[in-house]
Structure prediction request, 447 residues.
Amino acid sequence: MKAAAGAVPRSAISEAAASLARDVVDVVGDACVVRVMNGKGELAAIAVDHRDPRQLWTLRPLLDAAPLDARDGWSGQAVRKNTPVRLDSVSWDELAGAPAGRELRRGMIVPLRSASGVAGVLAVGRSISEPPYSLGEQLHVERLAAGASPQLDLRVPSHRGPQPVPAVAPPSPQRMLELSASGVWVTDRKGRTVFASQAVSELLGVPVSDVEGQPMAAFLDEEPQTVYGALHRDTEEADHEIVRPDGSRRWAAISSTPWLDDEGQWCGTVNAVTDVTERKSAQVRLRLLADAQHQLAQLAAAAARGDELEALLELAVNAVAQVLAVEHVGIGEFVAPGRIQAIRWMGWDDDAVASELELPRWRSTVRALEFDEPLVVRDYEEEPFRAGALLESHGLRSGIYGRIGAQGVLCAHATEARDFSPEEIRFVQDVASVLAARWPEPAYAVA
Prediction:
């Protein structure tokens, strides 16, 4: 069948899409998926690429998979808002579409624009260990997409209606809200979300469509009191913690003001939302350093006074629990190769740790003796040395292990996958060093 007059041949479109995907992965990596609108208004994948050719096979199934609904998810948000979306952490299938997999990625989605509106999207993702996509990278990808637009022959399905984009006119108030780095979150009298800007959805880690209709409590540690109808004449201001779907935590400064109609009747709440995660993290680090120094000074002073080892162990366990904000801490001694005896603990069932435990060589507690610095396990489900039955029975996901002399180990565990900070790691090492100076003679000869 011949192409319609003025239409770009399908082979040329495929070649242009493949070239665009290749240019994008070369610039910002690691993987790219190009989707365009089909006649039903769905987003169909027409090209994929990966910086590592050996990984390209993981993306090819997307070309045969069902198209995405252009109204839903992160891609739908980029289409509706006609604005790129940058995501610090997102599962690969939420970003690129099924069956891409649940692996977390840094993500970015850029709308592909035609003369009549948004006619596709370009999704790009890279390893979570890499920095998030920057505004500069976003602009670079937008330029690449704009340059490829004529060759892609982008068209908006007629039933969607025209979506003219003013070339010179100033942005509308709605558009300014969407582009603002600070978010706006509006709830009605029942506390349900009636509007959330793109900045809010990106901070929460969920698309706008999944925020609308939901109470703020579904995403925050605590709702502002104004949401409950407390008519503060002054703005209510507070910091709130957000737990995102991927388990990561963010902090937002929220300023809440009653939404009143022209007659002064309360209609809901208007909330200005600002990401203050970096500020909060800095405050937490400062508090951690101050607390760690105080606790370490107390332990060192007790050791210098010649306090009994039992008292030092109790002090060490309490100090580690407080500074690291964990409930499970233990100190053990290897009484034979692969056999450890817990001698002080917190948070454990006494019956579970009162007797000697036999551990395989690959278990974290045993491996800790091989390192001068603490051994950190971010997630037992990801590590080659998985948690044993004892840790699993207490719902523990991560841990840090500090060697005490030749045969002692100080360990602390968290119930969530956790990246222990350099300050926390150093504190555990310092506590272990203080205890090592008072540790008894080895229970068995070290080979």
Residues 17 and 409 are 56 Å apart (CA to CA). The chain has three domains: 10-160, 175-275, 292-436.
